[in-house]
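User: Predict the structure for this protein chain, please.
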Amino acid sequence: MTDITNLKPIAAIGAELGLQPEELEFYGQTKAKIQLSAYQRVRENPEGNLILVSAITPTPAGEGKTTTAIALAMGLNRLGQKAIVTLREPSLGPLFGIKGGATGAGRAKVHPVEEINMHFTGDIHAVTSAHNLIGAILDNHIFRRKEPQLDPRQSAWGRVIDMNDRSLRHIIIGLGGKSEGFPRESGFTITASSEIMAILCLSESYSELKERLGRLFLGFTFDNQPVYLKDLKICGAIAALLKDALKPNLVQTSEGTPAFVHGGPFANIAQGTCSILSMKLALKLAPFVVTEAGFGFDLGAEKFFDIVARQANLNPKVVVLVATVRALKMHGGIKKEQLTESNPTAVENGLSNLEKHLENIAKFHVPAVVAINRFNTDTEVEIAVIKNYVESRGVSCTVVEAFEKGGAGAIELAEKVQTLASHKHHYTPLYSLETPLEEKIATICKQIYGSKAVEFTPDSQKDINTIKKLGLEHLPVCIAKTQSSLSDNPDLLGRPRNFLITVRKINISSGAGFLVPVTGDILLMPGLPIKPIAENVDIDENGLITGLF
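Assistant: Here is the predicted structure, written as structure tokens:
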């Protein structure tokens, strides 16, 4: 349980940023929401430098990307640079599943840890309610045969829940007779995959939020006319449920560095970054803003550049690529049980994965620095293998000891980031929005993943025809793919070559403003492992929570 006696009052954190007392809504002494009026007030301020933290293809437990981002912001503050870290909100699914919390680790965390990891300020619950209200209204619309008459066979809107629950992936709803609705197939996905979550994180005002909700595609009528959420006349109600969720959340790191933790889309099935509002507000309040994109560079960072930054006119100045000895040993062919054993040869064999991610960063014309997130089982010889390789390519490299030392363990990284961020160049997107849809998908698959070819199934071809019919071909693509490999096969580690990417279907997220090609066997509702973390969690008579991390 977080010792709040060691934390600054959140009002003091806000004051340090120049936020006015009336611009904060307090959730106790250690959490606050920031009024949207604060963003309007500071919009003309000079803009700070945005630093994007990404990673190589991770092990199932992750490589410490969040921990490194937090430590980097604290390290910049130690150098006398005001910095803010902006992060996604944790999901209850991974929290109680296999990964545990998402608030950093050791001496590099955002606080209050347990509260952020669980209910926090209720944002994810609000998204869940908003999504499921749409489902309830839509099914009532069908039941009442209201105009426009939706064809239930051509509507894919299901329900969401912020849990990993495989039993809800495919269900039948409307059973029980004439008064209970029309029986049809449906299912649940995890809340982080909801288009409402994506819309929330891409909207900068209530008016934009309602506009995006209005163009959310729901399906077709019996005579094949498209139906959007605006046709159900509930955009105002949905936006009302999201009123507080749109406001960024202010907390702090282990060293009192301001942290905006807001929004929670996953990078393997959505855009994978925190809200645009939190990043743009932070950039007006501090000269350095550190943010992260989920999973490896092939997922979160590519989507950050081609979707989020393009839409919001953000310009990451530096990419910090987090690498670990253990992940490179995994890519070098070592089994999970042996990753803590010294094996410099395996590290060297796994460098091909790091190589591909560095090549991908270069495609966007942004300088990179490799941060080796050190674990206590790493040896000097293993670390030297990584450093020598990275520096031989002309890329900066440094060891980060965030877990043990906090901001002090990221001073060298902070110094390198300061130097690299001094340029005035703008990144280059991977593709133009005018590029044909199939070509956009193929560009990402071939250039970023390294695939030899892309196969479109008959179902995905039908989806392409529908997208063209609706005039949505100009939208960017947000590929849903496994995070465990550069390919769409989680078993292909390292740097796979001569593989095929299979696009099974393409979901339309017209409200969010992107299309979602679904590849391989990626699931939008994760399952739980044999021994979920939930089995370890307990609370005592004094409210002390144990076992989460």
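The chain has three domains: 34-118+248-420, 124-241, 441-519.
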